[in-house]
Write a structure and sequence with these properties.
By secondary structure, the protein is α/β, with parallel strands linked by helices. The chain has two domains: 8-131 and 296-312, Aspartate/ornithine carbamoyltransferase (Rossmann fold, 3-Layer(aba) Sandwich), CATH 3.40.50; 132-294, Aspartate/ornithine carbamoyltransferase (Rossmann fold), CATH 3.40.50.1370. It contains eleven helices and eight strands. The chain has helices at residues 13-29, 54-65, 86-93, 109-116, 132-146, 165-174, 194-204, 242-245, 255-258, 289-294, 296-317; strands spanning 43-48, 69-73, 99-104, 121-126, 154-159, 181-186, 224-227, 266-268. Strands 2-1-3-4 form a four-stranded parallel sheet, sandwiched between helices. A four-stranded parallel sheet has the order 6-5-7-8.
């Protein structure tokens, strides 16, 4: 059976650490002949139906470093503009490579994609649903900073909690580590759902109020601050007025805010940023989001190897 990486829900803790532990091994292997790596001489198909910079390029860079190759699907110049259906597009592009990296604005579209794909799919973001490779990168960044002690740390999610797929996926990953504590500082009308709140309280044994306002943040409580932008593209078209499209955040994370945090706290952001994260924080020693971005290539190298090895094992088991 083909192994697809679609959701954080399909992982066990041991598999997360398997990916983490493989990173230094893979980095060592790429400095010598690479025939031992599963992705050597393989091809990924980068198919992004939404804009991407870091995810698409880091997957491409990762595959090249593993000794593989990359072909890129561009929907603007594809037969979609001639009326080709999504299933036919997936059938076609999946015949040209070995792993399909797929991003799409529709939540849940991955299930339709795997019904029509001839190769494994990695979910690179489905609307406001999930972004599992980013969540693995985010947790690895935290692990890179704190080591195994990350499991006792406290995180504050800031921004568009309602619509951010990176937050949704990272939350599910953090639920594997119930000793961590989780809090929220949402933008106006971008609050976590009651389901999200109740799950945090249940899994992490938190009975206190999980939601802060900008005026009552307990700065000394947090080891990690994870910020996201307003996801205006996730709003329904019928409410997408010009004022919402260009909506400014009701608060901004700047140096004044960041300097109130613990000295050892790290500030993360999946990027791109808009007005919610001022560039005056870039030189602050707590800012870790550029390191987070840099780690994306090696983490996605490990993810590609993980998926390819899973499918190689499946073939052997047939």
């Amino acid at each position: 059976m083909t192994y697809h990486l679609l959701s954080i829900h399909q992982f066990e803790i041991k598999e997360i650490f398997e990916i983490f532990n493989s990173i230094p091994i893979i980095k060592k292997h790429i400095s010598v002949p690479i025939s031992r790596l599963a992705c050597s001489n393989k091809i990924i198909v980068n198919a992004f139906f939404e804009p991407s910079t870091r995810t698409s390029l880091s997957f491409a860079s990762a595959m090249y470093r593993l000794g593989g190759n990359v072909i890129t699907f561009n929907k603007e110049y594809s037969s979609i503009n001639k009326g080709e259906t999504f299933p036919d597009t997936i059938r076609t592009i999946s015949s040209f490579g070995d792993i399909l990296i797929l991003r799409h604005p529709e939540r849940g579209i991955m299930m339709k994609a795997i019904e029509n794909s001839q190769i494994p799919i990695i979910n690179a973001g489905d609307g406001d649903g999930e972004h599992p490779s980013q969540a693995i990168l985010d947790l690895y960044t935290i692990y890179h900073k704190f080591g195994y002690e990350f499991q006792t740390k406290t995180i504050l999610f800031v921004g568009d909690i309602k619509n951010s797929r990176t937050i949704h996926s990272l939350l599910e990953l953090l639920h594997m580590f119930p000793s961590m504590k989780i809090y929220f500082l949402p933008f106006h009308n971008k609050f976590p759902t009651n389901i999200m709140i109740n799950k945090v309280k249940q899994v992490h044994n938190q009975s206190d109020n999980l939601i802060f306002t900008f005026s009552n943040v307990k700065f000394d409580l947090f080891d990690i601050v994870y910020c996201t932008r307003n996801q205006t593209e996730r709003e329904s078209s019928w409410v997408m007025t010009d004022s919402i499209k260009h909506e400014k955040p009701d608060f901004i994370i700047n140096n004044y805010f960041v300097n109130k945090l613990n000295d050892d706290c790290i500030l993360l952001h999946p990027l791109p940023r808009n007005q919610e994260l001022n560039d005056d924080v870039d030189s602050n020693h707590r800012s870790y989001f550029f390191k987070q971005m840099e780690l994306g290539v090696e983490v996605r190298m490990a993810i590609l190897e993980f998926v390819m090895n899973k499918n190689n094992k499946s073939l052997l088991d047939l």
